[in-house]
Amino acid sequence: MSESEVSNHKVKELGIKENKIYIQFYFDETLLSAEQGSLLFYLKGSDQCIHFSLAQISSIDGLGLFETVVDLEQFSKEFSEIGKWEIYVQLEDSQKKRLRSSEKVTGLLYYYYEKDNRVFFPYTTNKGELVFKTSDPFLFAAVDKVNIRKDGTVYLSGYFDYPEWHKQDSSMINGTLIMENDLDNRISQFAVRENVMESSNDPFSSYRRFETMIDLTNGLHSIKNIHYKFYLEINCQDGGEARKNLKSSQLAYLPRVGEKNKFKKICTISQSKKRVKLRPKTDKRHLSISVSPYYQKQHLYESTSKLFKKWKNANKLLFLYKAIFKLVGYFPVKKNTIVFESFLGKQYSCNPRAIYEYIQNNHSEFKTYWSVDPRYLKNFDGKSLHVVPRFSIKWLFIMARAEFWVSNSRLPLWIPKSRHTTYLQTWHGTPLKKLAADMDEVYMPETNTKMYKRNFLYEARNWDYLISPNAYSSEIFKSAFRFNKNMIESGYPRNDILQKNHSQEELDKMKEKFSIPLDKKVLLYAPTWRDDQFYKKGKYKFDLELDLHKLRKELEDEYIVILRMHYLVAENFDLSPYKGFAFDFSNYEDIRELYLISDMLITDYSSVFFDYGNLKRPIIFFVYDIETYRDKLRGFYFDFEKTAPGPLVKTTEEIIESVHMLKDSVSSQKFNDFYNKFCYLEDGNATRRVVNEVFLK
């Protein structure tokens, strides 16, 4: 994690849920322990102090992550009185330290004491110190989305809340956006409307959302520079009479994850070119939009200076490569050219493979290439593919001019997508574990929660089409990826092969190719990776909890075991003691053939069970670490324990017992419900539907 994410006596996370405040912060473990330390709320201007106990959650490089939970109703008498509470950490030696926040807390989170008509909310001082304040209710409001258009209009979207209006009908509430300039304080007003179509998973999802369009064309734009600040005015009507009229403080700009914090655009305003900039003003993050004359020479000078600065600070070859990629992107598009990539260029597999094979067999008018990590070129030998080594000069010219990109995972963040390129993101699984923006905490190497989400959503904005295997996944993809373009709810192309009838002779030929016995049944063990177990970025550890010795002793007369690790796992298992019984096919290009020859699947939280369910064969869930994975690492989108279409076990002995019990049977209502919810679109024609929608439309 970055230094800004993990810093001594600084808040990591602060939330208000129902009637409780949750505060998580980092502190030096040599100075603070959960047993002897506490969190102190000091009422400013008095000697009143409230102590709250601590619990230590984790430890990172000598810094403990501590949590305090404050019951607001228990202390309603104290916290409902107008005043300010300063927050300190009580150390073991009776010293105390002010608690700081690494990010600005803006006072948009609050708790409402309805009986006393008071609000209790956190904010950060100019020195970065955390404070809680009690006051009379006021209008909470902020903007989280800004879109500057070339005609000088600006779309704004945000949220507002006023505690006394929670039960009011939306039709009774009207709003106005007030725009004030800094030259003569001239005010312009724009009607706002409630944005009922948009929702979010942020802490303010319960607030009312608003949107409006403002017009910059009637301002004083002959002046060299003009800056605008914004306020929201809301009134609530009752029986035709304005009952209450409220005006917010200056609106803050709190961009959603994936949205830019600041940007500029050249617009045509009053028949002349202007430069319109969005930039939060000061550390209070106030929304500020400026308009200034556009001078081409000045723009060229600034752009050149910016490029030179980047060149000075960057890897020169990488910088040059990126610049050439962007330049080549302006060349004419190569029509009907498709570049495929699967799992970062490591495999010829998954949805991209299914789409490629369908196009090769049915549409010869397309020119196809495969983007391949040079370290994995051997995986593509003998397949008669047009292979292009990733990040080579040839790759650059093909990628930048291609009409289509097809990938099942994210492309590097720096790649600029040309306007003529259509990017089909196929993704690679129905989600059980939380993804991207829906994740509470990220434990992956060389990143932190905020950075991971920002980078993920920034790349996802390039996707023009996204494949979904079912309606359940569509809703999650919209939320997790903030995706609002073309969703293709078609089933997964890679599963078409599972819907075909395969003769025993075909299956035997596959087994012979893998050199496994024809007279034995096959157990396929295909687990996922653990975010917090890694060697380095992109290479993850995996501890094999499956006891192969016990399995062989009990099952070798009837079964063999195939291991298939996740593509991010970098382990080489020594299976020599289990020769003839255990086989490692983790490096085999495509799991779908392993599905077909397997009689039973053993997995954990991997999305493979959604695909394997199409075969209507038994599935065992080996979930020895479910509490950690569910409650800490990822979290699930549904109640996995209740919905899983097979038994959940934690030991090898339980696996053996389940194998004997299940045999070939999957006839249960739970499995049927699972199949009807997640596999109903898989009919063998998903690839055709995708190709017709994206490439032939």
Describe the 3D structure.
There is one protein chain. With 697 residues, this protein is an alpha/beta fold. Helices cover 22% and strands 31% of the residues. The strands form six sheets. Strands 13, 14, 15, 16, 17, 18, 19, 20, 21, 22 and 23 form an eleven-stranded mixed beta sheet that branches. Strands 3, 4, 7, 8, 10, 11 and 12 form a seven-stranded antiparallel beta sheet that branches. Helix 4 packs across helix 16. The longest helix is centred in the middle third of the chain and has 18 residues, at 296-313. Residues 1-6 have low confidence and may be disordered.
Secondary-structure topology with pairs:
Blueprint: E1 10-17, E2 20-28, E3 38-43, E4 49-52, E5 55-60, E6 63-71, H1 76-79, E7 83-90, E8 96-98, E9 100-101, E10 111-113, E11 118-124, E12 130-135, E13 140-148, E14 153-161, E15 173-181, E16 187-194, E17 208-215, E18 226-238, E19 241-247, E20 252-253, E21 263-269, E22 272-278, E23 288-293, H2 296-313, H3 316-328, E24 334-341, H4 350-362, E25 367-372, E26 387-389, H5 393-401, E27 402-407, E28 422-425, H6 449-460, E29 465-468, H7 471-480, E30 486-489, H8 504-514, E31 521-525, E32 534-536, E33 539-540, H9 548-555, E34 559-563, E35 582-584, H10 592-597, E36 600-603, H11 608-612, E37 619-622, H12 626-633, H13 640-643, E38 648-649, H14 652-662, H15 669-678, H16 686-694
Parallel strand pairs: 1-9, 13-20, 24-25, 24-27, 25-26, 27-28, 28-29, 29-30, 31-34, 31-36, 34-35, 36-37, 37-38
Antiparallel strand pairs: 1-2, 2-6, 3-4, 3-7, 5-6, 7-8, 7-12, 10-11, 11-12, 13-14, 14-17, 15-16, 15-18, 16-17, 18-19, 18-23, 21-22, 22-23, 32-33
